[in-house]
Amino acid sequence: MCTTCGCGDPELVPVELHEKILAGNDRAARHNRAHFLESGVLALNIMGSPGSGKTGVLEATAKAAAGKGWRLGAVSADLATDNDARRLERAGIPSRAITTGQACHLDAELVHRSLHGFPWQASDVFFIENVGNLVCPAIYDLGQAANVVVLSVTEGEDKPLKYPVMFKTADLVLITKCDLIPHLEVDLTRIHDALARVMPRPKAFEVSARTGAGMDRWIGWLDELRARIPRPAEARVHTHTHAHGPHGAHSHGPGEPHDHDH
Amino acid sequence: MHEYSLVESLLRRVEEEARRHGALAIHKLTMRVGELSGVEAELLQTAYDTFRAGSICANAELVITRIPATWVCPQCKEPIARGGVLVCPTCDVPAQLDEGSDALTLDGIEMEVP
Q: Interface pTM (ipTM) of the complex?
């Protein structure tokens, strides 16, 4: 009721929120992150334009990391096909396809659902291959430990300047298809310069999935990240009963520490 | 075109808040959209106008405040020139994004309550 004169008319009330539009996604991402961490899985969000070489670089990663003894795993998002997941399977990476239909990006909930019934816990390094798109995926946290943006040398030296949001979120940029440089008019220093104008801590490795050149640096970087992830103690390997309601209701084994809300 | 899915989240959130307050109608929404939020304010407005029909926001205007992106040195606080390399030329430390530059927030709802 109107409190000014008591007339009984409805009243206009301002409600202050200052809340992130993506708060719901961020919550789901924290949930995923807690699961990855407690299972000792290094999860990476692999983003880049269509055709930048995301799948190719992952195939080459399986080859380059063969001596490491890592167990790899992946989910691969595509609008319409499961071709990429099948390619990764053939390369020896247990994979599942996420067909997103009209959705131009992955969100944390979609990743969470795709992990059900898939033995992601059995991986040491787990790749989440996002939809080929340099715009939308950038703002959705999936629960990954790091963001990797794949940029091929054929895409134009100023690409980072055109898509600053994507490159700002990158922890690492993989400059792919470097074996093509002799056939192109591309100046790598200009790509690195563009990255320095959109990333405060620019980090980029030049690689070729075809020849394997530069892949050792990428594997070394993954190794560093893996070292930072605590190995799950025996006692913490638990049976996890997943009763996921619409709000992600969750029941955990006794004594399971959790840093996300239920 | 993730603006459509963002509007869906926005409307869901507003409906939740309206229920909590027992609102009769929503009159206005205010949002902040930073230049580096990854969202195009105009597309967001179009998506909102498409989806609000039939929702509690049918007659609510959406007021978007756009915030330009600015980077600053975290040590000497000097701003980094627009388009420049994101390292402070004096202190040689990585630049920091100013608050709001990548904001994507619902700041306020003006609602009619009984």
A: 0.92
- Quick: pLDDT tens for A171-182: 999 999 999 999
* Count of alpha carbons within 13 angstroms of residue A187, beta-carbon side: 5
Q: Residue A143 in contact with residue A119, Cβ under 8 Å?
A: no
> Strand pairing of A125-129 and A72-78?
parallel
Q: Which residues of A touch B112 (CB under 8 A)?
A: 10-13
Beta strands in chain A (DSSP E): 11-20, 42-48, 72-78, 95-99, 125-129, 146-152, 172-176, 204-206
Angle at B11 between CA A14 and CA A32, to 5 degrees: 110
Of all residues in chain B, the one with the smallest CA distance to A135 is B38
DSSP A40-78: T-EEEEEEE-TTSSHHHHHHHHHHHTGGGTPPEEEEEEE
* Helices and strands, counts by H and E, chain B: 2, 5
* The CA-based dihedral angle spanning residues B8, B11, B17, B22, taken in that order and rounded to the nearest 10 degrees: -130
Tell me which residue in B97, B105, B112 faces A10 most closely, judged by beta carbons.
Answer: B112
pTM for this one?
A: 0.88
Write out the H or E segment, with its range, that includes residue B25.
strand B25-34
